[in-house]
User: What shape does this take?
Amino acid sequence: MHGSIHQKNISDSGFTIVNNIYSGDEINEMIRLIEQTDQSNKTFRKSEDLFAIRQFLKEVPLTKERIFNHRLKTLINGLFGGGYSVVKSIYFDKPEASNWFVAWHQDLTISVDRKIHLPGYGPWTTKLDQFAVQPPLDILQENFTIRIHLDDTDEGNGALKVISGSHLKGIWRTDDFGSQTEAAISCNVRAGGVMIMRPLLMHASNRTTTHKRRRVIHIEFSKVQLPDELKWAERETI
Assistant: This one.
């Protein structure tokens, strides 16, 4: 899987794409498990434009065996080494007729179990009894995200757009975006492939124009030990 190339991509550009991590059968089995899940829990969000499952691995636990197959584990260990745990998982389904888009941003928060005052942590947000906080910068620089694509994804059905190298510039202000977005790269990924990215990478997503579905499992990883007073809201060993 050309680990040295992907390591350089992640280091220099903030992201890399690796196809053929999952077979068609593995993808179909994940989709089947998702579709048969009880969707009444408040961690499920459903609208005309988006279906999302927060704390995905808790809500659809049978997918874990399929997600963490030998190829993905080998990829993670080769790129980042050991000691990482899952600290956040979300499933996104952008339907064929969706008008949903995501504006330019960085992923600046982590999900934790409570809201408390801690030096270096803040601001805080609370949504559906779930707590998110912006941690110290070094935590964000250490973490990484893997996006598992269950459908072929390109510019037409909302592939992520990114600004290569933007993860190296710390936390951006909104008025810094400007002309930088003109150099955006579309991260096209085939079904069964993954995109790996750093949280500080500037990214966005367009509306769907080709009426093709886009389903993605988004998983964030960290090996950081939080202060004793705070715990990750969601933590799974790999």
Summary: The longest helix spans residues 24-35.
